Amino acid sequence: xxxxxxxxxxxxxxxxxxxxxxxxSIGGYVPTLCYMKLxxxxxxxxxxxxxxxxxEIEGRRNLAPACxxxxxxxxxxxxxxxxxxxxxxxAVQLLLSDHPQxxxxxxxxxxxxxxxxxAELNIHNNPYFGKMSLHKKDISAAIIxxxxxxxxCRRCETMCNExxxxxxxxxxxxxxxxxVKPTFDWSLESTACTxxxxxxxxxxxxxxxxxxxxxxxxxxxxxxxxxxxxxxxxAVRVAIGEEFGYEPGTISTGKLVSxxxxxxxxxxxDTNFAADLTIMEEAYEFKERLExxxxxxxxxxxxxxxxxxxxxQFPELLEMPSSAKSPxxxxxxxxxxxxxxxxxxxxxxxxxxxxxxxxAKKYEANREELRGSGYQDVDYVITTRELADMxxxxxxxxxNLPEEEYDNPLGESTGAADxxxxxxxxxxxxxxxxxxxxxxxxxxxxxxEAVRGYEGVRIAEVGIKGTKVKVGVAHGLGNVRKLLExxxxxxxxxxxxxxxxxxxxxxxxxxxPYHHGDFNIIKRRTEAINKIDRNKPIRKSHExxxxxxxxxxxxxxxxxxxxxxxxxxxYFE
Length: 573
Ligand code: HC1
Ligand code: SF4
Known about the structure:
Residues 83-122 form the 4Fe-4S His(Cys)3-ligated-type domain. This is NAD(P)-dependent iron-only hydrogenase catalytic subunit. It holds the Pfam family Fer4_7. Residues 141-171, 184-213 form the 4Fe-4S ferredoxin-type domain. The structure is a single chain. By secondary structure, this protein is an alpha/beta fold. It has 3 domains: 3-96, Roll (Ubiquitin-like (UB roll)); 133-211, Alpha-Beta Plaits; 220-567, Rossmann fold (3-Layer(aba) Sandwich). It has helices at residues 19-25, 82-97, 113-120, 155-163, 198-202, 214-222, 253-263, 271-291, 304-313, 327-343, 360-365, 384-393, 415-418, 425-439, 477-488, 519-535, 545-555, 561-567, and strands spanning 3-6, 9-12, 36-38, 43-45, 54-57, 64-65, 76-78, 138-139, 143-145, 170-172, 179-181, 208-210, 227-232, 267-270, 298-299, 350-356, 380-383, 457-464, 467-475, 496-500. A 5-stranded mixed sheet has the order 2-1-7-5-6, sandwiched between helices. Helix 15 (477-488) links the parallel strand 19 and strand 20 (496-500). Helix 8 (271-291) crosses helix 10 and helix 8 (271-291) packs across helix 14 (425-439). The radius of gyration is 25 Å and the shape is globular. The N and C termini lie far apart (54 Å). 51% of the residues are buried. The structure holds 2 iron/2 sulfur/5 carbonyl/2 water inorganic cluster and iron/sulfur cluster. Iron/sulfur cluster binds next to helix 4 and helix 5.
C-alpha cells in the first residue's frame, strides 16, 4: 500500500485510491462538483471536468484534480494551498460567467451546490463574462429542465444512461453552447424518459428540478367548496424530518400527519392503506396465475417509472406485469367512490393530493386511463421536498409539532405496507399474503431476508406448498433490463419480480430530500422503514381490519367486477 502525505500527515492507502479517496479516508475535505460516487449501487461519475477539486502536489508543475489523480508512493499533497484555492475560485467564476444570475428566484435556491461553492470560495465578484446561451426550457408534468443552468457535470447523464439505461440525456454542442439534454432538443415527454427523477436527484444546480404543484394545492385548500384529502407515501415519513434538522432515518409519521392538518387538508389519509389494498389484488392475481398456469413471471406494477420503461423498452412483455394499479392510484379511485359515499360528499368536490417521494407519480396521476372513479383519480402530486417548502412557508415549527394519527377509513395500514417504501418490500409484502392464501397455513417468520439488501438483482427461493417459488427483486432500471433479458433468453426462471426504478426503492426517490451523493442516507431511511414494520401490531395486508371492511362493505372480493374496474389497469406500447 502506497504511503502518501496529505497536509503534512502521512497515510497509507490502498493502491486503487485516488487522491480524493485518500483525503476522505482521513476525514479531510476537498470540494467537488461534477464528481459523484454511489458505491453501493456501483455508480461513479468522474469526468474531472469542473476542476473544482484541484490540489497541489509537491514537485509537479500543474495542479491536479483530486478525483482523477491516482495515489502513488511518496506523493505529497496540499489540499488548500493558496494556488489550489485560487484555481478552484477561477473554475467556479468561469462556471458562473455564463450561468443565469437569478439565484433568488431559482427553484434550487438554498440547495444549489454551485451557489454553496461560490459562498465557500468567497466569490463576491467575477472578472469573467461569458456568452449567455439561450436554451429553451422544457416543462413536463413531472420535470422542468432549464439547460441554461447546466454546468456539464454529467451526473444526470450517468444516472440516466448507466443506472437506468434509458439514454435520454447526453452532452450536445461545444463551447458556451454545450449542455446535457435530449438529442435534437426534444422535450422529455417526446422521448423514452421514464420520469424516474434520478437526473433531478443528482443535479447540483437548477438545471433539472421537479415541476411544482404547490400553488394549485394552496388554491384547492383555500376553496371552501372543495374537500381536499391527502395521502402520504410510505417513504415520506422516514425522510421529511431531514428537511427540519433531524437525522436521516428519523421516523416522523406523527409530525407529518399533524403538519398536514395544520396546513388545512380536510382528511389525512395514508397511501399505506392502499398499499395493503394493492397486496390483496396482487397476491390474489399471483395465486391465480400460479395455480392456473397463468403468465409468469408476474411483475409488480406500482412504480410508474418502471411501468413506463417496460412500455417503451419491452413492449412484447406487456402481459407480464400485474394489472393491479399502484397504491397511489388505488387510493384515488377509492377516495372518490367508497370514501365519497361513506362521507356523503359528491366526488366532483373531492380533491386528492398525494405526497410522494417520486417524480414519476406526477406523470402517473396524469395518465389518461387512470380515471376509474369517473374523475381524474389523483389530482395533484407534490414531493417530500415540496411539502417541506409548504410547511416552512406556513411558519410551522416541525420539531414542535405533536404526534397525531391518520384519519379513517383510509388511514389504517400494516407493516407490509410500510416496507413498500424500500427495495424488496413489495415482493416481501406479497409473499406474506400469498403464502398464507396458497398454503392455508400461518406464516411464522414474516421477514424474507433473502429479498432484502442493495444488490442490483436479488433472487430468492421460497417453498410454498411443495412448489419452489422464485422471487426476483431489482432496483434500478438497468438491473431489471439485465434480468428481463436473461428471462427472455431462458437463462433465468422466476415466478414474481419486484421492480423499483430508484436506488434503494422509493426511499431513494427523485422527490426526497437531496442525498448529495451519500447513499448512507438512503440506507438509514430503509432501516427506519424496517423498524416501523417490526413495531406494527399487524404485519400482513390481509389482516388489516380497514381492508377487510372495504371488501365487506364495497368491493366484494379481490378482482370482483367492482375491484377490477376501480383497482386494475392496462398498459400501452
Ligand atoms: Fe412508492 Fe408505492 S411504495 S411506488 O415507491 O407502491 O412514490 O413511498 O407511494 O403508489 O405505497 C412512491 C413510496 C408509493 C405507490 C406505495
Ligand atoms: Fe433519464 Fe429518469 Fe431523468 Fe428521464 S427522469 S431523463 S429516465 S434519469
